[in-house]
Amino acid sequence: MMRRASNYLWAQPLVMLALLLIPPLLWLGVIYLGSLFMLLIQSFFFLDDFTGQIVRELSLRTYGDLLTRANLDIFVRTAGMAAAVTVASAILAFPLAYYATRFASRRLRPLLYLAVMLPLWSSYLVKVYAWKLILAKEGIISWLFERLGVGWVLDGVLSIPGLGGPSLSISAFGMFIVFVYVWLPYMVLPIMASLERLPNSLIEASADLGARSRQTFRHVTLPLAFPGVVAGSIFTFSLTLGDFIVPTVLGNSSFFVGQAVLTLQGTAGNVPLAAAMTMGPILIMAVYLLIARRFGAFEAL
Q1: Residues 76, 83: contact at Cβ < 8 Å?
Q2: Residue 273, CA distances (Å) to 36, 39, 118, 119 in order
Q3: 18 and 167 share a domain?
Q4: From 6, 12, 67, 260, which residue has the greatest number of CB atoms within 10 Å?
Q5: Domain that holds residue 258
Q6: Quick check: is 40 in a domain?
Q7: Angstrom distance (rounded) from CA 264 to CA 266
Q8: Mean model confidence pLDDT for the chain
Q9: 26 and 78 belong to one structural domain
């Protein structure tokens, strides 16, 4: 029986392909896209002002409530942090990826890959709470600044409105540091993959034509590796955009989108407004993916 089925599937590759694709497509179509569709429908309901109950009638009232100054500030704050984390991750990741793929020896290269991957093996929550201790007022960073006699530099950073706070562990700058640490591997790996696919013959041809190393990097290496940077930015930007744990652990009273959705859905019980707020990051990422596609990011994944 098994042999007959095996022979049939071998003779009918389309049937074999359909059997392989149907389960994941059902999961994607029914569970994932279905849940997003239900979320979209929920966003058109609204909360009754008198009873506090959800009125299941299609209306744009919830989106009217969403477009307030406070909620728009949440979107701007979250997108700004995601953009800053993405830029910083790219600046830190590219030199590491470039050295690992172009200059590291065969023995050193696997160790560099391991060093990049190693943080991903530990618990996300453990890393966040460990950084909270490191960035605390009694933590090692504050102690180091004091020992070096430059504690005034840290105090100056913490006094900047919108960036600082009582300590690094309760500040936007502290969140930025932790976000970059947590998501940096997701930027390094696509850049490494992009640089590894760069043919050495192009580098040699550039040198043969008289280009200096700096010119080769600027006009050959960087343009061809840029899709890898954009591919990595998809991860860092989207993961920062939807994260609520880091802002909850290290943030202050200024909400991010993830925190606002959690509060609206849980404490406030305003599910329609929470659903409408989730449409913001989805729309932002849809536009971002369209832009990333134009830069060839999908081919670099």
Answers
A1: no
A2: 15, 10, 39, 36
A3: no
A4: 260
A5: 68-300
A6: no
A7: 6
A8: 86
A9: no
